[in-house]
Amino acid sequence: MSMTAVEQAYRRHWARLLALLTAELRDLDLAEESLQDAFAAALAAWPPEPANPPAWLLTTARRRALSRLRREAVAARKLPLLVVDDPPRPRPSPTSGSS
């Protein structure tokens, strides 16, 4: 896919796709980042233009968002398992001290 086709898709569909993703995800930042990733993927993956570019972009953006949400959920579950308590410090013995 040429840069021109992706640029045209951006001009025609960005706002509507961002609105759809934001409504679905309830997170503007996640929607915007996912859609940006989808457009970046389109630059690499569109040698033949898909039959329905907005649908391809929306599906790709949804999948990117879902992957990110899953990664964050796993990290939230696993992070407490990575916390290691400090080992107990040895107490000074009553005989050691000032003479």
TrEMBL record:
<dbReference type="InterPro" id="IPR007627">
    <property type="entry name" value="RNA_pol_sigma70_r2"/>
</dbReference>
<feature type="domain" description="RNA polymerase sigma-70 region 2">
    <location>
        <begin position="10"/>
        <end position="73"/>
    </location>
</feature>
<protein>
    <submittedName>
        <fullName>Sigma factor</fullName>
    </submittedName>
</protein>
<dbReference type="InterPro" id="IPR013325">
    <property type="entry name" value="RNA_pol_sigma_r2"/>
</dbReference>
<dbReference type="Pfam" id="PF04542">
    <property type="entry name" value="Sigma70_r2"/>
</dbReference>
